[in-house]
Structures are given as structure tokens and as C-alpha cells.
Amino acid sequence: MGAVLEFADVTVRRGEATLLDEVSWTVEEDERWVVLGPNGAGKTTLLQVASAQVHPTSGVAGILDEVLGTVDVFELRPRIGLTSAALAERIPRGERVHDVVVSASYGVVGRWREDYDTLDHDRAASLLTELGVSSLTDRTFGTLSEGERKRVQIARALMADPELLLLDEPAAGLDLGGREDLVSTLSVLAMDADSPATVLVSHHVEEIPPGFSHALLLRQGAVVAAGLLDDVLTEANLAATFGMPLTIRQEDGRWSARRQTRHR
Ligand SMILES: Nc1ncnc2c1ncn2[C@@H]1O[C@H](COP(=O)(O)OP(=O)(O)OP(=O)(O)O)[C@@H](O)[C@H]1O
Ligand SMILES: [Mg+2]
Asked: What is the pLDDT of residue 114?
């Protein structure tokens, strides 16, 4: 297989606004990317194109060896696992956690078929175990905490054995312990050679799980830098992305950043 994502000058416009500005980006099968950028930078829009929800206004978006605009998106979308706030809102609050996950095998939200086979049920159960939420299987989605919901959504995104996993701010709304637990879980996933190519959107370098390989920095719809984490996460690139001088550190595979103080 060629690249999982191959974007050439992908531009998305809405009226006068340019949401993505000539983004060229390639994601290979064994890569795990983090996409960083301030509010409004275009991160969610980028994932909407990558998940075949939004077509570029100009440029070419190659996804899983298909070209968006020349392919039936209803065949492409089931090959992609996605978690996002917009998707989470569509999950019925009264849905049983097990069903939230198992229903993804048919790409639907809300259980609609009664004849999922044993393999589907076993897979849903093992994913809930892998994500550390097997004890919640009989609860309804609406009764879960934010962190628990995030884990169930990731299990759901993995249910159909996707070739591409897209996670839009999975750590948003989590407390410190919840974030650290999720970073560990994503790190285990990232280091598993059987995991799909993964793109994780975040605002914080602290949320980059060990095992992630690449970073794309976005500002005002344009790519500031893209490539291997160590090459991209420089103080100059972060300053250009977030519009302020930042100090960045890496320790034990984890990153941290803060505003640069005057006395250095
Ligand atoms: N239909 C639209 N018309 C005009 N502007 C839009 C439209 N949809 C999104 N935008 C703008 O496009 C920009 C990029 O939005 P996007 O949601 O991709 O940003 P983001 O990087 O995900 O931000 P956040 O970190 O806040 O989630 C924002 O400024 C947003 O207001
Ligand atoms: Mg967003």
C-alpha cells in the first residue's frame, strides 16, 4: 500500500475564510502523528478532510489509496476510525456502552441490528478491556464521566479495525490523572506494530504519548512545520505556531512547554 494520507496543496475555503491553506502532508502506515496548533488553526478541518467528511476546495486529498472526490465516501469512511466532540454528541445517552462500541462494526451510531455475531461481541469486549473500561460495559453512555467517555469512543473507533485512526482532542476535559492514564493508553497503542496509522490532534505538547513519531504544526490553516518530532518541536517552530516565545523540554519521552521568561 502507498501512503495512508497524501495531501497535495489541500485548501478549504468557506466564504471569505481560508480554513486550510495549501496543506501538503504525507502519512505512512507505520507513523503516529500529533497535530498541534492554537484554537482556530484548522486542526479539526484537517481531520474532517482526512476522514472524508469534507472535500478540499482545491488541491488533492489522497486517503487510503483513493482520491477524495473520485471515490464513494461511504466505502471509504468505514476504513477510518474517528473520535471527535461532534461524533460524541451523536451517541445516544441511553445507549449501553457495549452497544456504543459494537455498533461501529456497521458504521452506525445507535444499535440497529440485533444480529452482530459472536466475533463482533468478543472484539467489543476485548477493546473495552484494552482501553481499561471493561467494568463499564453495561452502563449507559450518558452516565459516564468525560474520561470514561473518551476511552469508550476510542474503543468504538478501533472496532471496525480501521486502517487509519484519527483522534480529535481525546484528552480535552480530562483531569490530570485522566490525562496521564489516556497518554499511557495511547502510548501502548502507538507502540503496537499492529495499530493503524494514527493522527492525534492536541493543543498541548504534554499530551504527546511516547511512541508518537511525527508532528505537524498548524497556524491559520497553514503548515508551520511537519516531520519527525525531534526535528519539528523546536522553540522557533513552537513560537511561530503559538505566537509567543516558548521554552520546550523533553524528558523521559514526554514533552513540556511554557512561556519563555525574560531571564534565561
Ligand atoms: N463554515 C465556516 N465558515 C467560516 N469559518 C469557519 C467555518 N467552519 C470553521 N470555520 C473557521 O475555521 C477555522 C478553523 O476551524 P477548526 O475547527 O478547524 O479549528 P481547530 O484548529 O480545530 O480549533 P480548536 O483548537 O478551537 O478546536 C476557525 O477559525 C473557524 O472559526
Ligand atoms: Mg478543533
From this structure: 63
Whole-angstrom CA distances from 190 to 75, 130, 179, 183, 208 are 26, 13, 16, 10, 11
Q: Please give the distance, rounded to the nearest whole angstrom, from the Cα atom of residue 51 to the centre of ligand 2.
A: 14
Ligand nearest to the CA of 15: 1
Show the cell assigned to 73: 465516501
Contact call for residues 101 and 138 (beta carbons, < 8 A): no
Ligand 1 neighbourhood includes 16 CB (under 6 angstroms) = no
pLDDT for 108: 60
Give me ligand 1 centre to Cα 191, in Å.
31
Is 145's pLDDT higher than 60? yes
Query: Is 46 within 8 Å of 130 (Cβ atoms)?
Result: no
Ligand nearest the Cα atom of residue 219:
1
Instruction: Show the CA angle centred on residue 18, arms to residues 90 and 25, nearest 5°.
Output: 80
Domains of the chain in sequence order: 3-89+163-259 (3.40.50.300)
